[in-house]
Amino acid sequence: MAERSFAREVEDLRLGDGETFRGEGILAITKALLQSGVAYVGGYPGSPISHLIDVLGDAKDVLDELGVVFQSSANEAAAAAMLSASVMYPLRGAVAWKSTVGTNVASDALANLASGGVTGGAMIIVGEDYGEGSSIMQERTHAFAMKSQIWLLDPRPDHEKIVDLIEKGFQLSEASNTPVMLEVRVRACHMHGSFVTKNNVKPSFTIKNALENPVRDLGRIVLPPAAYEHEREKIGKRMPAAIDFIGKHALNERFGPEKAKVGIVLQGGMYNNVIRALQYLGLSDAYGETQVPLYVMNVTYPMIDAEVEAFCRDKESVLVVEEGQPEYIEQAVNTALRRRNVSARVRGKDVLPMAGDYTSKVLLDGIRAFLEEADPRLLGNRPPAPDAAPVLALAEVARLKEVVPERPPGLCTGCPERPIFAAMKLVEQELGQHHISADIGCHLFSILPPFNIGATTMGFGLGPASAAAFNVKADKRSIAVMGDGGFWHNGLTSGIGNAVFNKHDGVFLIVDNFYTSATGGQDILSSRASNPRRTTNNSIVAAVKGIGANWVRQIDRTYDVGRMRDTLKEALTTKEEGPKIIVASSECMLNRQRRVRPQIAKAIAGGARTVKERFGVDEDVCTGDHACMRLSGCPSLSVKKLDDPLRDDPVASIDNSCVGCGNCGEVADAAVLCPSFFRADIVHNPNAFDLFVARLRMRAIGWLQRRRERARFDAEAAA
Amino acid sequence: MNEQALRLPLAPAGAATERPISIAILAMGGQGGGVLSDWIVALAEAQGWVAQSTSVPGVAQRTGATVYYIETMPPLNGRKPVLAMMPTPGDVDIVIAAEFMEAGRSILRGMVSPDKTTLIASDHRAFAVSEKIAPADGIADAGAVGAAIGVAARREIVFDMDRIATASGTVISSALFGALSSSAAMPFPADAFRAIVNASGGGAAASLKAFEAAFERAASPERHERGTALEKAAAPASGDARLQPLLARLDGELPADALAMARAGLLKVVDFQDLAYGAEYIDLLRRFADADGAAGGATRQWRFSTEAAKYLANAMVYDDIIRVADLKTRASRRVRVEKEVRLSGEQVLQTTEYFHPRAEELVGALPADWARRIVARPALLGWIDRRVNKGRRVKTYSIGGFLTLYAIGGLRGARRRSLRHATETAHRDAWIERAINAVSRNYDLGVEILKCRRLIKGYSDTHARGLSKYDRVLRAISQIELREDAADWARRLREAAIKDASGEALDGAVKTIGTFA
Q1: Looking at the complex, does the CB of residue A593 fall below 8 Å from at least one CB of chain B?
Q2: Residue B330: closest CA among chain A residues belongs to which residue?
Q3: Which of A469, B96, B222, B443 stands 20 to 30 A from B36 (CA)?
Q4: What is the pTM of this model?
Q5: How far is CA A446 from each of CA A589, A658, B134, B240, rounded to the nearest angstrom?
Q6: Three-state DSSP class for B505?
């Protein structure tokens, strides 16, 4: 089980009629699913939707009361396939993942689901990881919605609106027999807000009902000739039904004056920042009272041509605000208006940037440029808009560009992956550089300083598969890295199975830290904790052997840098054929500390004998060359300036956040760096024997020390 | 831009409407920026305001820089404000930076404006990886951030909030919240802030302590020195009577400008070996001073002598196993470690050393003639290395471990007969000759050659790499010694060598010099 408890958030799921929910957007979404009477929920964790999975994972009681089935899916394809429960049965179901990466993985199942259509409402919550702070490639989920004809909701970033659209979205799905996607951007997922809750709804038809009364219909299965019929049905029946529903329930919204020369057509998700931009231009107040008409598309696919026509009919110019590329909506608006012979000029990505976040600043510039041409009178006397350029031009500020260091994310203090990469670095020093395929996960931080390891990353669990071509006899072997999360997501088959089958000679390093750590520490098949609701403790080593790998080495303590290095060297040089698989296992330190720290604190407070470890550096032994840091990057291992005029360079220093993982000492030893590091063992609540031995030792040592101090020149005494 | 439109005498299109209070928090993952953000939201909501916070935790939670953004304003006749989801450059009322370079980053991102922004920043440093992995001093210039704050912020509240938090046994968010309350940049009474901290559960008492300390500190009117470059400490004086004759010699024989450094150097050398070694230090330093005087040092603040006092001491105090063992067994070391790990009364401390000696270190400590005989027989040296060269964990404060280290530390008397000493002395003397030769022709070049000593540091391979860099730099310098700008090139070469561990920058510089010929 994830070491973080979501018990408090689970309480929010119980809120009833007329109560107020306050919290994160993704939790509001979770609550909205229960209010909508879902019968089952699945998904794969990943920013920004992880908390949906986490909270439902901790919400056994709430889910049991409602009879809701919750599954932490093996991957997004598995989650999408789960929605097939809604094909034949009137079951509402929802799945969630990070997009577009998760949608990429799920797209096969989604395409099949969308082809046959659904009976019960099927909803896909996609966390659109786009723009600043995103950790993935910059693409749009919109394309998936269009290609498979799945309706795409893009609600205004407001809890009430989002919750309402989830309820309406299920109805829309059922009214049009089509799965629906709800797209929420990163900031909307993590946005704090509030809404008035309703009671949770128990599904009227349950999974159990379905299981006991199976139904089948050949016409829903994707196989010719039904598949041809599906396409016609999408166009002829489902889309019109959806358009009808969307219009009738006014899912899209209009704000501002009825009559105007200009207007703005925008994605729901852009609403808040558009209002702010208009406010800067003096065209709206803080409460959204806008003087420019807005057509807010809370449903971005399908577009309702008639609504667009009605909005644009009397206008000279409209601006389409659509984040990301290509500009699908702008193209659709153009097509709709040309076909209907509406003359309004359509502006969009010609005044707004094609790529990147639409921040208030970007929108301010774009909307101003649009209005300067389309209706300059609106801009009035042009009140001063915020502009950081003058400040940025100041010499003192410009200088900062060379001063302020980059601070990319990195491995946590005590991370068990650090010694793995330190060992790889040592191997590199000995055997030269190798081609290394990286994967998705915390271990991808290896590509950054200080390690600078890894050449490509091709997708979650695809590190080993992306080394597939490097399968010829050569003086060097390829190395592929993959985490335990990626391994179970698909890497066992796509990577290891593939390598075994194709007799790949490379090295495959599986980083096993007992959780899917990068997404928040969720359990997976090989997690070591026992989890009453899941089956854990399934060995990665047994799995790779089961799939046919022969050369398999298990390292149970990654902090043993010397062993790690020797094993890697062996894998790179052994004569044995076939994939060389190393499973390097140690618990994720972040999760370990969450679990262990309270236990230790309790033990110490309770008077139990407890040994705490941390590392230190003797500052007079350290020469300040920082070789240790070039093999570490640990947040607790830093530098400090000494108050000594003879020393130019800062020395290494370890602060009290050190968790005593041992990497420093092991690296200093394995790399033969220096004798500055020491481990300090602090015995809390020592027993009588500890005290006796310590006193005896320190008495003898003190005598020896005094003996030598007498001969020493007292350089430290003050004059 | 429509020029005509600009000249039209139009009234403002709308009322200059009120905007929400906007707050950006710049922090590193794990600093508690999320907690602070939640507190501010709870505070505003408790006052009946509408508050919205956004963030991008994602991967940034792993020690990376991240921004939390909050907007808040009262509702109007039941209407909720529409709040933006990202800070707009030039329009942020309050910027809270949980670390000093993050304050710099907030300015670079345009969030701090002279007409509106209150900047609340802790001036402590958490060094970035790029600052730590530089082989020498890669620490960013905090002074530059201070200067930028001076011109960019309307108001600044800057002090070490991390220290306040640590002293109170909590994390920085409480101190930042205290400073925010004290700044009165949000129109809520301090007690409303306190109520939020009080409701925060677990460590509320410690949080409140940090809150109050920071509140008070932020309110105190005097401007405080920021944590910029360290002042060079005055050289320690010594009360040991046996040292007095040597100190007196320094006073008599060296230019006053170099005295402080020379005193520090002398103490270091004597501490390393003995009084005789100290006398040797002064003899050698005297040679530098004489050459300095002949080269006109009096008009150059005796820079040559001062640098010599520093680097000669470092050259004479090389890092051998005797020194390491000696330092590790000192009483003062135990005291320092106890303080560092915050050892208290009844706790018991043990330390474990991570040694990895090689044959080189062991043989180097032997008398020079024996050692040379061993080194001349590679098979024997290899045999010794196979026995010696492995990781050794030694418990410092066990009888056996301590005695071993103590015995090695006691070899000091034999040090000056050792091979290592002979090697170091020869190397040192060659360096002295180079520098003194150079200074007579080109004063600045002489100084630069002295400073090249900085390249030699570390143990085993790192030490060997340092030596080879030093050799390459000095070789390259000899190619350009006669040029007028030789000193400048020497500096560039040295800095290139210091800058990156891989040596690529040095390769480039050496290549450039090659083209001069």
Answers
A1: no
A2: A705
A3: B222
A4: 0.94
A5: 17, 21, 18, 52
A6: helix
Q: pLDDT, tens digit, for every residue of A498-549?
A: 999 999 999 999 999 999 988 888 999 999 988 888 999 999 999 999 999 9
Measured in angstroms, the CA of B319 and the nearest CA of chain A are apart by 8
Distance CA A538, CA A639 (A): 42
A38 lies in some domain: yes
- From A708's Cα to the closest Cα of chain B, the distance in A is 9
Q: What is the mean pLDDT of each run of 10 residues along chain B (517 residues)?
A: 42 62 93 93 97 77 84 93 95 97 97 97 95 92 97 97 94 97 97 96 91 95 44 52 92 95 95 95 97 96 97 97 96 96 93 94 94 95 94 96 97 95 97 96 97 93 91 94 93 90 87 83
Looking at the domain assignment, is residue A705 inside a domain? yes
Give the whole-angstrom CA distance, residue A73 versus residue A94.
Answer: 12
* Angstrom distance (rounded) from CA A535 to CA A544: 18
A173 and A99 belong to one structural domain: yes
- Report the alpha-carbon angle A607-A611-A613, nearest 5: 140
Q: What ipTM score was computed for the predicted complex, to two decimals?
A: 0.94
DSSP A562-604: HHHHHHHHHHHH----S-EEEEEE---HHHHHHHHHHHHHHHH
Cβ distance of A645 and B91 shorter than 8 Å: no
Same domain, A356 and A285: yes
CATH number for the domain that contains residue A683:
3.30.70
Report the side by side order of strands in the sheet with A93-99.
A69-72, A40-43, A93-99, A122-128, A180-185, A151-153, A299-301
- Domain total for chain A? 4
Contact at CB, B348 and A400, closer than 8 angstroms: no
Name the minimum distance, in Å, from the CA of B516 to any CA of chain A.
30
∠ CA A637-A641-A644 to the nearest 5 degrees?
135
Among A277, A281, A309, A276, which residue's Cα sits nearest to residue A295? Answer: A309
A108 to chain B, minimum CA–CA distance in Å?
A: 27
Q: Is residue A548 part of a domain?
A: yes
Residues of chain A in contact with residue B63, where contact means CB-CB under 8 angstroms, are: 407, 409-412, 635
Q: Is there a contact between B91 and A712 if contact means CB atoms under 8 Å apart? A: no
Of B270, B328, B356, the CB nearest to A715: B270
SS3 content of chain B, % helix, strand, coil (to 5): 60, 10, 30
Same domain, A108 and A206: yes
CB-nearest to B56 from A133, A281, A712 is A133
pLDDT tens sequence across B116-169: 999 999 999 999 999 999 888 999 999 999 999 999 999 999 999 999 999 999
Q: Where are any strands of DSSP class E within A100-137?
A: 122-128
Can you read off the two tokens belonging to residue A336?
């709709």
pLDDT digits (tens, 9 = 90+) for A309-321: 999 999 999 999 9
Q: Which two tokens stand for residue A677?
A: 């590091």
Residues within 8 A of B (CB atoms), A 194-223 only: none
Specify the CATH architecture of the domain B21-219: 3-Layer(aba) Sandwich (3.40)
Residue A224: asked if its preceding bond is cis (omega within 30°), the reply is: no
Closest listed residue to residue A635, CA positions, set B65, B142, B69: B65
The position carrying tokens 């066992």 is A492
Boundaries of domain holding A584: 418-591
Angle among Cα B20, B21, B26 to the nearest 5 degrees reads 130
Domain boundaries, chain B: 21-219, 441-517
**A11-67, pLDDT tens digit by residue?**
999 999 999 999 999 999 999 999 999 999 999 999 899 999 999 999 999 999 999
- Angle CA(A397)–CA(B53)–CA(B192) in degrees, nearest 5? 100
Backbone angles phi, psi at B35, to 5 degrees: -65, -45
Over 90: is that where the pLDDT of A3 sits?
no
